[in-house]
Amino acid sequence: MEYLFLILGFIVLLISGDLLVKSGVALSSHLKISTLVIGVTVVSLGTSAPELVVSIGAALKNHPDIATGNVIGSNISNIALVLGLTAIIIRIPVGKSSVSFDWPFMMFASLLFWVFVLNGKLSFIEGFIFLTLLFIFIFWSVRKSRTELSRLGHDFVKARYSLPVSLLLLIVSAVGLYFGATWLVDGAESIALRLGVTERVISVTVIAFGTSVPELATSVMAAVKKQLDISIGNIIGSNIFNILGILGVTSMIKTIPVSFEMRFDIYWMIAVSILLLLFMLPYGKAMLNRWKGVALLFVYIFYIFFVFGSKI
User: Fold this and answer.
1) Contact 39/230 with Cβ under 8 angstroms?
2) What pLDDT score does 182 carry?
3) What is the mean pLDDT of the segment spanning 110-131?
4) What integer is the mean pLDDT of 160-187?
5) DSSP the chain
6) Residues 196-233 pLDDT 10s
7) Which CATH number does the domain housing residue 67 bear?
């Protein structure tokens, strides 16, 4: 039965990812903001829904390693696996905003997360700080995009769907992502538990992969449809949402203990983020091409083998 859940979850996630890209592009025209901003806000929020549900549920059921490991592992797989596979399929141009604003904000959130867990927990006040920073990020992204597009006199292509239909598709796709991820995680977790591995290992590998499939589906669909701003913007935005939004909400609901072993995975998350920056340089001229995609994918595979083979 768990294999049926895996297959069904993948199918639903692929269809939902396609709908999310279509609704996101239509919304960018209606709201007069760029598809990059839609990628780092609306689309990222939708693809981060599975992580939110998993982390809150895990915290309430006293599984803190799953609550935090899901986010950390998802951020690692978003960059190393999702962007890696997408870059192998098609070359991804890197916008200036991704290097000058979005990536620095993601790194700031990652480092702040590391500082907050040095005392072994995430508390209510730290979660409140996370959410405040998330609202600032969204507000600044939308305002910055509208100002720049107005200055350049950007002419938006007519939206494929009306605003109500675009919003309906967005909701339907988010619901599909949630159920698809839930079924995939349930099936994958059942299989992984048979291997007798710890909750931390399951959370940063199997569960994180399952909850990252929406980002994978959305980014691949966006790349195929040549909506490459959504592809890379979705990944960076999703990582920001994962830390500030998911851990913010979860820790405000209940204080989350963070084990020493989990901090080791945070170092991996930060290292992978730095590697992404190196691949996005030089400023304004970078391209995530096939060899960079292969390198990112190799890093992810190495991380998975290291986690399963290490006693940390």
Assistant:
1) yes
2) 74
3) 96
4) 79
5) -HHHHHHHHHHHHHHHHHHHHHHHHHHHHHHT--HHHHIIIIIHHHHTHHHHHHHHHHHHTT-HHHHHHHHHHHHHHIIIIIIHHHHHHS-EE--HHIIIIIHHHHHHHHHHHHHHGGGSEE-HHHHHHHHHHHHHHHHHHHHHHHHHHHHHT--PPPPSS-HHHHHHHHHHHHHHHHHHHHHHHHHHHHHHHTTT--HHHHIIIIIHHHHHHHHHHHHHHHHHTT-HHHHHHHHHHHHHIIIIIIHHHHHHHS-EE--HHHHHHHHHHHHHHHHHHHHTPSTTT-EE-HHHHHHHHHHHHHHHHHHHH---
6) 777 788 888 888 887 777 777 767 776 777 666 556 77
7) 1.20.1420.30
Measured CA to CA, the distance from residue 67 to residue 200 in angstroms comes to 9
Whole-structure pTM value: 0.79
The residue behind tokens 């909750």 is: 199
Written as one letter, the residue type at 79 is: I
Beta bridge mates, 287: 93
Amino acid found at 47: T
Report the alpha-carbon distance of residue 227 to residue 205 in Å, rounded: 28
Q: In this predicted model, what pLDDT tens digit does every residue of 243-257 receive, in sequence order?
A: 999 999 999 999 999
Q: Can you tell me the distance from the alpha carbon of 231 to that of 229, in angstroms, rounded to the nearest whole number?
A: 5
Residue 113: domain span: 2-309
CA dihedral 207, 21, 244, 100 (to 10 degrees): 120
Q: How far, in Å, are 131, 142, 152 from residue 49 at the CA level?
A: 15, 21, 34
Residue 111 tokens, joined: 């480092």
